[in-house]
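pasting for the record
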Amino acid sequence: MLTVIWGLGWVVTSIERTAYPQFKRLITAHELHLFFSPTRDELQWAADRTDSDEHLLALLLTLKSYQRMGCFPRLEDIPEAVAEFVRRAVELPEGTLPVYRAAKTMKNHRGLVRQRVGVAYDQGRARRIAEESIRKEAASKNRPADLINIALEKVVEAGLELPAFSTLDAMASTVRKEVNASICAGIHDRMSAPERAGVLRLLEAAPRCTTG
């Protein structure tokens, strides 16, 4: 599915059509245990680095979400079922919520997670790798979702944190337009004057759409 965002000037790709990681709408009990169960070592690691139940839960959710997705979702975007499962798994009091009262704490937690999982935070390099891979493939692939998937693969291979989906989507749209324009310009330059005139006549003769 493609959605036109008029004010932004590009067609937005539906994230569901790509391999970009996101939480499933329905997560089974098996998936919760498989992907979101903190180990004893992870619990001890998080407990040593937090000063409240809320921060402990937030750090564990940040860690398990990154391990599963390769990026950091906002805490409010983490499904309640996941947050509740982790809370119960580490026996925190009922009603404990993952809360960051300061952006500095969230930033610090993300740094701790990156250090633990061994991933580099270099968004400039990640964007360069993504753009290079998209530009390389755009001449043969025209679907934005395919281009985004290629970029995801290359960024992950480089051991880097994924850029935001909106960043990759806008990049794929921009690069695709540039590559297509270059291809059209190349075709135009190779055509003779009579051939160009013939194409213009075909365009002028094409039926026009009307509304109403």
